[in-house]
Amino acid sequence: MPFASTLYFATMLLFALAFRAGAAPQPITRRSSSDLSLTAQLRLADTAIERYQLLPNDSDFVFNFTGTEELPVATSQNWPALVGVGTAFSMSQLPACSMSFLHLHPRATELFALVSGHILSEMIPQAGVLDSNNKQRVIRTDLRPGQVTIYPAGSFHTQVNPDCEPANFTAAFTSDEFAVSLVAEQIFSFRDGVIARTFGQSIAGQDIERVRDAIPTDMAIRVDECLSKCGIKQ
Fold this sequence. Notes:
The protein is an alpha+beta fold. Helix content is 27%, strand content 23%. The protein has seven helices and twelve strands. The strands form three sheets. A five-stranded antiparallel sheet has the order 1-2-10-5-8, with no helix packed on it. It has a five-stranded antiparallel sheet with strand order 7-6-9-3-12. It is globular and about 60 Å long. Residues 1-25 form the signal peptide.
């Protein structure tokens, strides 16, 4: 009987192993590259050589800022040739008497170069960077054509054009997908209670909704004093 029992259990074990082997997960079928965007195919390429093969036309390496781009920024999403390069680029202008909304780039440092015009720049580094009065340091620069300033990744910053003519600039980013966070809009996306406590109960109730509704949605915020000085109608 002991031998029969041993044989029985050995037989059952072999059946179990055979069943498990037959039920083992099968390799996942690879998706056809035609199902993927060109940017996705470039990200999945094993080598730089394969990326060049996916960009067979010389025109693939040219981005046209004078085209129909709604936002004049070249990223890997609208210019696949940037995949693997680790950078993005913008070429634009800040209208007369306007300020860019307060923002930050969570995944990239920005190099901002003025081509023409005049820009007043303000940037706040990370917490703990203090000035001589032991207060949060604010780095203010007065940019003229041919000058460049830097906004480290995650730093709050804005630019103001205080003159009556547009200011033309270029900007380079250390990521092909740098992203933008809009400070005022995102802060006031929190629940009212969070906002009230954050601001020491100095703003609460209907005032919070009033501020939400007053936050500009335009990329360039108009500067009233400058508009009056230049005789520009809003």
